[in-house]
Design a protein that fits this description.
Length: 258
């Protein structure tokens, strides 16, 4: 992590470390359980992935150092609150949480408005299987603030076409089943429907920021084909338990990881 933002300001360092510590405390780090929940997907690993993707994209766009730091904070904090509180959405609650932390480190309202817009840009609609059907829209792609928001929204699905994307997708499936990070499904019920939605998502998804397609979609066709193959195996009843899914994911990762 230190290498990723070695050139960040002390203020940004403090906000980011505070944020990542809060995510790990609340939802776990993928190994250690969280205080509120132990999510297989929405945990510290996801926060780090979105933060790293936000940094990569904003640097690719040659945005200012301040904008890159704000994108990193937004990516780290975008899911710091996962619970809906009354009429407040998790994204709104996460943005408000980051607002308070940034205020405590003397950030001004202009900077906070950038992180608020970026976190709200990660708001998405999902279908009955928990799969994305609509993402952010109506953001000014010409302004620096808009570019930060679109970068963070794109980074939210940064893992889709990555070598470990299949494993991460199946962690999300486990989470949708209401299981913790230390549990695995006792059956494959519901996985066929999930995979059908995953194939459609991988095939049709367009990142909110066009540059993200070039940087993150190297294995798009292979990812679609692999999920489609897994769907075929499920439809034919050729997979018996979750251990076979894990082996499937590991094989895919080893074939694509450098």
């Amino acid at each position: 992590i230190v290498m990723i933002f070695h050139d960040f300001s002390p203020q940004a360092h403090q906000v980011i470390y505070t944020t990542l510590a809060e995510v790990a405390y609340r939802y776990g780090d993928g190994k250690k359980a969280g205080f509120i929940a132990s999510y297989p997907y929405h945990n510290l690993s996801h926060a780090l992935s979105v933060m790293e993707g936000s940094i990569e994209l904003t640097r690719h766009l040659n945005l200012s150092q301040a904008a890159i730091e704000l994108a990193a904070m937004s990516g780290a904090a975008h899911d710091v609150i996962r619970e809906r509180i009354g009429d407040t959405t998790p994204e709104q609650a996460s943005a408000a949480w980051l607002h308070d932390v940034m205020k405590s480190y003397d950030y001004g309202d202009d900077d906070i408005s950038v992180t608020t817009e970026a976190i709200l840009a990660t708001t998405a609609s999902v279908d009955e299987h928990g799969m994305l059907i609509a993402q952010t829209h109506a953001i000014d792609s010409d302004s620096e603030t808009g570019k930060v928001a679109l970068s963070v929204a794109s980074a939210d699905l940064w893992s889709l076409y990555k070598p470990d994307g299949m494993r991460i997708a199946h962690n999300y499936f486990i989470e949708l089943k209401g299981l913790s990070g230390s549990e695995v499904p006792i059956s494959l019920d519901g996985l066929r429907e999930f995979e059908a939605s995953e194939v459609a998502l991988l095939r049709d998804y367009c990142f909110p920021l066009a540059a993200a397609e070039k940087l993150s979609s190297t294995y798009r066709e292979d990812a679609v084909a692999q999920h489609a193959y897994l769907l075929t195996l499920l439809e034919e009843g050729r997979l018996a338990d979750w251990q076979e899914i894990e082996r499937f994911d590991t094989t895919y990762y080893r074939r694509h990881a450098s």
